[in-house]
């Protein structure tokens, strides 16, 4: 119990720093693939703690990146990051949106490779100007229009940095290797894939991750046995036909609007899957140019989901066939682009049980819930799948935090006392995995 | 006017024979491609009038036949024809449904090739047992269940034979060549194509054809300037998917029923054509095996039309693409079969004007109408198109006849006095075309 | 254990009778609502054992019957039943398909109301003429074309009669009331509803039912804890439009074919339900009269399912709205008829555990499996839902039996030694429920 | 011929004024219902010529106006008009977009009521900045962004004012009443309806109208016998459903996106009409908010057409039913708004023949074409229909003019020498109708 007491003392000592750090990140939110300031900050801190640090193409596989912003948006975000204090050399290395960071710490004694994954990106939301909104009262609300940390990733990054510092300070008591992964673009489930494909968890024996709030809405709650990650794939399909005057020569048109409408209907008729949960949604359809013109352009945005990667693959294959057939149906072209995705999965049961025990031992959690069905998608699952597929164990926790409003809402905020809860839980669990035995 | 008087006298002299002949054919109706008895009768009579007679593969191009009955149905019809008095040798030559007959008469003096086309098949209709129905009163109603001359082709064949006889008797007064074409399977517009493809009108300078009734519902009326034949194509599309239990494993099915439904909807959404009339109809859709099984089989029967052959071609091409795309949409197979078709077109104006003049000269028509829009499909148009395309002239007439009920109705009957009208009009017009001058 | 030994002895003594009885019923299969001979036989036997017997409207609620055959078919089946030895008075009472039978036995000592449900109908299947087929070898195959016991209900009825006899013979050892329910029309899940609505299980404390085979394919296996009955509803929807010539006046038609196609596609696009399994299937679509006629008639057969009655209700409501909207879309009428249905549900856990214990005690089962997911629909669930909803307990068992081919297959047959297994299990379990204590 | 010579002289004398006037209007284009400057100019000039002038609600029926801009847009346009020299009192009277103007001139001698209709609005097009564009070379191109006279209405208004002036000067030679109608919002066929409904042509015996260019692309050509105006109706349909998370609770959504898609497909499947040309086009479909949200909002913009008002009415009724049914199909609401429309029709043959004669007499037209099929929609047809329905005659002419680019193109310009052609034709034709005899 010596280690536990040491960790609790260390975290309690840095409580104010945690809040300060979180608020700094909150004021400078950056959306997926543009986390140049955040990632630079992370990289510099990790270096200062003695970590080997991977950035740029060492952290992210370029051609596996999904849902990238335009080159112009990326360049503007780089400039802004530098103007807001980011290290220009690091920002330069991240050109093209390569904003993932990996920190590695080799302890002297041999032991397992244990990893923690954090996410850094914000949402496409403009933070409320409501005076009662806590970040407004305390003066740390977003300084970027249409960008806001409305999902708590500012907290995740903050906790990650604290854990990295504490474990580095405890290096004589630990064994094996600690890897800390800061990923970009979790929103839209776009970022994990490109880091996982770069092999960053290929040698990992134990992987942890966590989210504030979600189904744990009370500070002091924790869920260690999370199941039911839905695998998901995000597509954009752009149909291109031929315009024609709808009165004078309708037969000369190639109707992309109807192709998209036809696709939408038939996509929703993909059969249910008997092996588990499946989902399909065409969430956006923008088509046509004018009332009296045969619609020559159409864009649809859709997503598939499945309670297993296989079911999602079934949905994805059906969707692709249907999109192509809908184009053929109206004699138009279609370009289908995969713009995001996550694997399905569930926590490794043994690791989940281990975490529950640790949570009890810490003694700060009022309510340690049992199995918790996630029922949604998080691209942590890409890392989880990789680790589990080579025989490792992975687990995702939900750390309870009182919320001011739902996730992705412009009034979102979380109870900052949860920062210390999460830091303690992570440090203690990781320390108990970073041993030569077990 | 000598010739006209001669013709009138000849027709008037055979009035009773006309009625007798028509009633014999009416009693023994034969549907498309099974006109073994009728065609044998025609072939024998033409031979006896001195015509060179082409039957079997000399009259009909085998691989251009559309919408054939089953081999069994054909064989049964052959047996029945023989049992009803047909010449077994001729019936044998027509094996496989080759029931077209061409009669050729070369006159001594040189002159144009002039043709008359008649159709011989009946409808898939069971004649009414209503006692007031004229054929029942006179005892000449159909002896075949589900077969009835409900469109007057018994009359057309009768008139054709009379015209053939009279013109052969007038051989010293005529010049050039007379061809008389008796085609099978006009219903479903299936038969003309296979004779036209065999070249039977390739040398024809003038082609005539006629129909009783239709838009001319009063005996004594005649229309010589018929326009607006709708080109048409008939398709069957059979979709084959894979059955699966709809409760236990819906994802294992390949849904042919939905593919057919999807095809039907999108076929009807083929754009209108600015160059003229277009039509599409899916008239039948039969799909699925059981309520709780993913529908693995589906059949649809459809047709396209167009006021020109080009418009119909547009519709046909669109339909084919849509049928294939609907199959792709549901991952099923589709087999598309063309089962019928007719060209579009209009009477040659010069020949129409000539016929109007002849109709006036005969003096038996009370009402010679002007342009008459056909607005439907008749496979006479296949012959017409061929003749017109090589510089010849073609015209289709409607010969007025009081009707007991509409065409294809089980109560259909036409005023038999129209038989003589038509025979006179045909003989006189043809005689005026079969001259060395003109 | 005295009772158990007594039961085993009694059943063993009647083994040959069980087989004889089963084969008699097998030779005279009757489809849903036409079980006149079977039901008469059952009613007579129950009477002879001293049961109070309810037939006709006392057993079945007339206006709750779903999926009835035509009046003619019912009358013909009545005549046949009498010709095959059925009691004419009983058959008369069942006129209109009222073929349900309830037997009631009041024991002297007070106690619970305990019920057993059996089903009597056969399938719409013609039994194979394969010489190797056991019923052919033994000369007891179906004497009715297109009717065959291909789901083992002949066995269920046989076991039911044996249980009724044995329990009546043990009347001095038992307490409370025994009710035995013989239902018609289980196939298509049509019959239970009309008996449940008549209140036949309103006073039941414990309800048992069973099926041979299904997921228990080895004689000697048994499943007592069956869960996951899918609630289901079966609909027929008949669309009526207006025919019109597709070439001459398409705008005058009202297209029932397209309404049905439109309904089919949109039915399959009913959203998935997050609370559990949902299903939709349009398994049949028959529409249109001729290729060139706007389709004025269409029939579709569909079913919805849900892992709970609520989810199925959601599907059912959506389906009804969509069918009506599809009719409105094409300006046609639609008549929607519910032709079958079953509730969702699972065995009462306490009763399931009790049955497992009894199965062990009997000592004849080699393999007593744990939870068994039914994953399909059986209208036993209607009775189960009623009993559970008023605080009673219900359980459905699967009794292992080697099968010659799958259920509903023309080669289906089951190992007749399973008859005794089931009779023993039923008698013993029921006897242990029919006590004054517990 | 005295009158003709007088007219020719008068027009020739004002040639420069015509061009100056046209260019002033061209520089200040105003889109539909915002023609405050143009209408004020017209009203002032008509007053100065001695006309009785109707503006505001005397000219336009408020609740029959279709496709109005927002209140803000109208107010801004009013301010701009005043800032560009419009009479503030007149602009005030036109508040709300009441920009129609009617001028009435009663001649001393009794005679028929003869009217001329002109249109004043411009297109939603930004005029090209191409230096070679004639209006740029001559310095009279549009000073308003996104507004341009790209359809020649600047010329129509100019000619109308010239005709009004000349006929007023010839008052002693004419009889009856002359009415000149300047309508707003011809683009989108929105304006005529609201003036026709106000009764402005209820007393008109002869109505003329004209367009530069269109099918007459050579200066010196003229078409007097225009037929085949397509009746048309423009709809907006807004669907409102309920959003829901597509992964977590799809069944809670009400899918407006699919309702709109379903509407689009089924609208295009409205049957063709045998009585003439029909058209349907869904030209725009905008739906949904995010990829992972059930689409709760959708907007579609559509139009129907027909070669007669009856056919268009059929299309319109079908469309309305389908839109409502599509909403019902997905349990969403729909609001349907008619935003434009025009009647079908053809020139009165007698008046067309009269105009041809007058065109010949003038002697300035090189090519007077025969029947000219319009094949599109113009809301002149609303006035035409009203006049013809009470027994009057109406005709629309196309006055040839060399064009720099097609109508509605940013490079559009027409040969200004056509202004005089049109003025002469109008003045002479109107003068020959404004007589006591005829």
TrEMBL record, chains A, B, C, D:
Span of domain Peptidase M20 dimerisation: 238-327
SUPFAM superfamilies referenced in this protein's UniProt entry, alphabetically: Bacterial exopeptidase dimerisation domain, Zn-dependent exopeptidases
Entry keyword set: Manganese, Metal-binding
Positions annotated to bind Mn(2+): 151, 153, 187, 211, 408
Cofactor binding remark: The Mn(2+) ion enhances activity.
GO process annotations (BP): folic acid catabolic process
Domain of life: Bacteria
Molecular function terms from GO: dipeptidase activity; metal ion binding; para-aminobenzoyl-glutamate hydrolase activity
Cofactor: Mn(2+)
Entry's Gene Ontology cellular component terms: cytoplasm
Name of the protein in question: Aminobenzoyl-glutamate utilization protein A
Organism: Schwartzia succinivorans DSM 10502
